[in-house]
Structures are given as C-alpha cells and as structure tokens.
Amino acid sequence: YFLIFAVMRLTKPTLFTNIPVTCEERDLPGNLFNQLMKDDPSTVKGAETLMLGEMLTLPQNFGNIFLGETFSSYISVHNDSNQVVKDILVKADLQTSSQRLNLSASSAAVAELKPDCCIDDVIHHEVKEIGTHILVCAVSYTTQTGEKMYFRKFFKFQVLKPLDVKTKFYNAETDEVFLEAQIQNITTSPMFMEKVSLDPSMMYNVAELNTVDTVGKSESTFGARTYLQPMDTRQYLYCLKPKQEFAEKAGVIKGVTVIGKLDIVWKTNLGERGRLQTSQLQRMAPGYGDVRLSLETIPDTVNLEEPFDITCKITNCSERTMDLVLEMCNTNSIHWCGVSGRQLGKLHPSSSLHLALTLLSSVQGLQSVSGLRLTDTFLKRTYEYDDIAQVCVVSSEVKQ
C-alpha cells in the first residue's frame, strides 16, 4: 500500500495522579523523600502528599463510551511512499446492531496527495444505541500507473449504559399524578447532574418538586453541587395536572395513558457532556367503576357537633345514561344533615355534577367521612362510598 491509515479517539485529558512516598524525619532517608516531592513539578505546592496533581495527561487507552455521549475520532491518511497518488476518497461508517451511519465530513475525493502529506478529518457522533459498534474506515485511491487501490480497517468498541432509571407513579384523588424517578449512576466516575426535567405529554402540565424556596430564591434539594457518585441513586419528584381542556375527561380515562418523557443531561470528568431521553412513560389509569365520587372541598378541622359543608363531584364513567338516587347513611361518628333518598336526575356518559352536602360529627379525633350510597334506577345497582376523606374533629373550646 502507498497510504497508511491511522485512527485515534479524541477524548478529554485527565488530571495527573502521583503516588506520594514519604517518611518520618528520624527514619534513614531523613527529609529526602519530602524534598523530592516538593521539587516534583507534578505535585501541588503546599499539598505534596495529595495524589491529585495540577498537570494533565493524554489518554492512555480507548476508554469507555457511554450511551448519550458524543463519540469523536481523528482520522488521518498519510502518503508513506515517494509517489503522488490521486483521487483519494476516505469514507467512515459506523455500524451498529440496527443501522449503518455515514460519518464522513465530505464525500468529495481529494485530487492528489504528495509524498509525506496527509489527509485529516475529525468525525463526531452522538451515541444512541447500546452494544457493539464498529467504525469502518475505507480508503480508495489511484496510483501514478493508473492502478486503483482500495483497503478497509475496522475498529470495534462497546457502548455502555451510564444510568439506570426507574419510575413510580402515584395517582391522587384530585386527578393529579405524582412521578418519582430514581436515577442511579452505574459508571465508575462521578457525574455532575446538569438537568433532570420531565417533558409532559399534551394532556398535562408539570410542576417540579425538586427545589426549595428560601429567602426569595429557589435552591435544589440536592444542594449547590449536584454530583452523583458511582452507584449512588437520587430521587426526583414531579407533579402532573391535567390541562383545563382535559380536566373534565381525566376522571373517565381508562387504560394506558402517556405521561411524558424524562430529559437527563450530565457532565463527567473535564466537562464531557452526555444526554439521555427516555421513551414515553406510560401509566395505567386507575379504574373508578361506572360511577366515580370525589371530594372537591372539605375543611381540615371542624368543631364537635357543629354542621360543616362539603362538596362532592359525581362522574358517570360508563357509556350509558344513569338515573341516580342519593342515600345518606349515618355512622357511629358521622351524621348527615338533609333528606336521604333524593333524586339526582339523569347523568349522561362522561358528564359530572357537583353536590353540596352538610354533616356533623359526634366524636372527636380524626374521623372518616362514610355512608354515601348511589343507586342507578335503570339497573337497580347500588354503589357504596366509604372512607371518602378524613376530617379532624375538635371541641369548640380547643379550637377557640
């Protein structure tokens, strides 16, 4: 071959580390080791016994490549002969388990390459797949005698998973959805977590619950330095609320619903940036049966044996019209005020009605609101609702 092909991965340098060797002054070497460390240009002045120095070292090996990072490589084709070669075409492809990508910056051929000259190129690719990757570099050229030459080289490397992401969903009675994301650093080096955000679906608005407001400014619950050590796990919490146009339908959604996707950005070592986006997160919507009853308003604390008001929301989650009758059953502590067995009228599918009710408690302490019954006169089916909510009952003297 007339040409020599070389490929080198471009990575950031690392901080030089040395192994301090010292001894006590009464030992045989005396102050020799300490003086050698002070004279060593790689040590930090005044802190010579620390292993971390102020110098940088070039990468000694290929290193690890993680999903979401940018793979950069330097490609050089050198004319090692004493002849001029023509029509040099350099092509770099990246072969993954699912596709083949062209990474060459230019597809045009170089007219000629003189002896001891080279063609240089730098390629970049954001890694989006885990597993084996093969960098295929091919060179074709024509000699002075008109002979066409061609050769290829293969460079195999593995792409590893940097983070382990687990999610948990909590469905609130107010149609809010709380998402807990557990993110674990499964690499061997610390990460600076630059951003962890949730991109919600079109149905929801999201509120991040990972900051604390103090003295007029917002601070992260993880502190000012959000480093994640190897194998450490951090929990992020988000609250999703249905948008106004979907709020009325939220109570009757059945099956799997799309919540959104997590966007994670981090930096490692000397600022190498990585980014991951999860696939669309899905949760199973809670089943409410044919009729859903939820509380819209209820006081936190009420007086003993004094009436208080609550507001209920009744939603028809079925696909048929219902004719409902409301019955109120007293319990040992909760007594309903009003007429039981009254007609609520027809309720169409996916529609709701609000109902104001009055009750009182004859027992102090934390009491459960129970005893509501809804009967569908068409099917003669009764739906029972107990433990709808809790209310704290105190004597009037205590509250005053």
From TrEMBL:
Pfam families: TRAPPC13_C, TRAPPC13_M, TRAPPC13_N. Coiled coil: none annotated. It comes from the Eukaryota. Residues 6-159 form the Trafficking protein particle complex subunit 13 N-terminal domain. Residues 163-286 form the Trafficking protein particle complex subunit 13 middle domain. InterPro entries: TRAPPC13, TRAPPC13_C, TRAPPC13_M, TRAPPC13_N. One of its GO terms (cellular component) is TRAPPIII protein complex. Residues 299-393 form the Trafficking protein particle complex subunit 13 C-terminal domain. Part of the multisubunit TRAPP (transport protein particle) complex. Belongs to the TRAPPC13 family. This is Trafficking protein particle complex subunit 13.
